[in-house]
Request: fold
Amino acid sequence: MKTETIAIHAGNHTDETTGAVVQPITMSTTFERMEDSSFREGLIYSRAANPNRTSLEKVLTQLEGGVDAAAFSSGNAAGMSVFQSLQPGTHIIAPDDMYHGLRNQLKQLFAGILEFDFIDIDNTEVLKAHIKANTGLIWIETPSNPLLKVTDIRKIVALVKQHNIKVVCDNTFATPVCQQPLSLGADLVMHSTTKYFGGHSDLMGGALITVKNDDWWQKIRNVQTMGGAIPSPMDCYYLARSIKTLPYRVRGHCHNAQLLAGFLDIHASVEQVLYPGLSSHPNHNVAKQQMTGFGGVLSFCLKGGEQEAKRVINKLKLFTKATSLGGVESLIEHRATVEGPDTKTPFNLLRISVGLEHIDDLIADLEQALL
Ligand SMILES: *Cc1c(COP(=O)(O)O)cnc(C)c1O
Reply:
């Protein structure tokens, strides 16, 4: 089945007692035992499994072309479960512009437990030089946040497979509508479902999707159900509801982002636009090979520096000055401010999460704000 069909039908089932077409929300934390002590559907207690979470995990699995998925209460909880599933002393290689929340998680919560190097993973020589005997995991994030760097997933997989190193891909920016890392050789996909899956800036969630149901995956499942960072039945319901329109929303985001990138690219006040859909992007060819759309996030640098970036942001009327991405409304932020003092993000950079407003209105707003 194609993505649009999976998004609508996978996991959802018509209620047998009432005939309700939309699966009801099962709020119950606990499930009744039968006379022989067994359970009707194998459901015991909602931290272990809940019908709405199971349905959500089914649709996530099929969208990424995996064999199983685990839903979490946030993207960071999903990422943390991966790190917690590793043997202490395991060495992780991660990109130097890894999502700052996860980079800080490793640095602050896993120091002394795991080893990690943040490097330019797109540089083959640098990557090879960092592979050690205890390297167990390579973390990929593509396109990356906020520099929209594109990593060649196939190339990394080919390079590390012989070393028995697992490859995890944070696919939040691309979504399975634009990119399916498991089909490119990755072992695990991670999502912040807070972003495009939720799509309306009103719920937090995370997910992991696996290509194999092996011992490692069972460990991750244990971290999920014993650690307990699970989404509520209500959040699972809302997320499954939003996913039904994911393919159409993502196509709209990509369409608007491409046109906005084109507008900014030729604007006199703009120094550089970072968007994988532009032919000027250093890895545009890799993006074309592994993506079917280039996503809804772009960054651009202003010729007038930090001061000019902050002036532009305050002059915009339609774009909301806020962090996060993937919602129907357009958001803009001065990324270096968000990331704090140790940021490597240029101070003249603005990141836009391009929403689903009409592109003419978005361009008109930027036009009046830019000099
Ligand atoms: C937001 C985000 C995360 C973290 O997800 P939360 O839901 O905020 O915990 C991880 N990776 C990327 C690329 C993100 O954009």
